[in-house]
Amino acid sequence: MCRWAAYLGSPIFLEDIISRPGHSLVAQSQEATECKTSTNGDGFGVAWYDRKAEPGLYRDVYPAWSDTNLRALAHPVQSGLFLSHVRASTGSAISRNNCHPFAVGRWSFMHNGQVGGFERFRRYADMCIPDELYSHRKGATDSEVLFLLALKEGLDQNPLFALERAVAKLEALSRNRGTTPHMRLSVALSDGERLYAARYSSDHIAPSLYYRWSDTRQGWAVVSEPLEQEQDGWHQLPPGGFLTLSDRGSEVTDFAPGGHNIDLSCPD
Which residues, 6 or more positions from 22, have their beta carbon under 8 angstroms from its beta carbon? Predict the structure, then answer.
């Protein structure tokens, strides 16, 4: 399992989420408290938005706690929208291409969880990615496939529907060819204007996901674990929940991949 944190609001320094809080993302890379593995040292990454539509992207394979370049970047850079991630591999190689977030055009995406038995059907899942998107398949993770399938299903038009269909596709493949647990997921994604997050599981164990408004920062934080222990104001997104954050506020709706009829033939 991995840990991640995202932010939307008035511009802040990246370090205000990544490294400065008592239970910052860097702290969680060494001592996470709400996942199976307390150490998340298989790489890190950050995607941030500024004056261009496409996000900046910095990823590496070092543990977040030992990479001085990450702290050097997070200290002076400000952004009103960014995604950050520390990785604990569930089987794929420790490589830069497997580090989150992933980015295609204006979209950025990161994931915590697993698709059960993915290595048994990885080639088949890759075949579900259309030709026009396959050049963006750089690594070997289930997360990257999920992102590209969501793009295929129409992230630009309807992020909730597109992500539901992508999750349903991989969960169906896992049920048909993989192992349990078929799907565990907490995910964050952004188009550079809005921040979306979802929490879901095919069993009773859904990865943790919290969100909170800060009057001090004038912004929203969405995180795997609260950034300060015993801090008030954190809301837990319920399993089967989809969160939309924008300058209009927050909205939680149902996230129900099981409501889609999925054709398992690939390509389709």
Answer: 227, 228, 229
Model pTM score:
0.95
User: Is the link from the previous residue into 130 a cis peptide, with omega within 30 of 0?
Assistant: no
Helix%, strand%, coil% for the chain, nearest 5: 25, 30, 45
Q: For residues 202 and 183, is the Cβ–Cβ distance under 8 A?
A: yes
CA count, 13 A, side-chain hemisphere, 91: 13
pLDDT tens digit sequence for 129-173: 999 999 999 999 999 999 999 999 999 999 999 999 999 999 999
**Longest CA pairwise span in the chain (Å):** 50
Q: Is residue 266 annotated as part of the catalytic site, yes or no? A: no
- State the residue for tokens 């496939």: 145
CATH number at residue 236: 3.60.20.10
Query: Mind listing the pLDDT tens digit for each residue in 49-64?
Result: 999 999 999 999 999 9
Domain range holding 13?
3-259
Helix (H) or strand (E) holding 45: strand 44-48
- Encoded tokens for 214: 């800060």
The SS3 call for residue 182 is coil
Of 2, 35, 99, 128, the catalytic one is 2
User: Domain for residue 266, yes or no?
Assistant: no
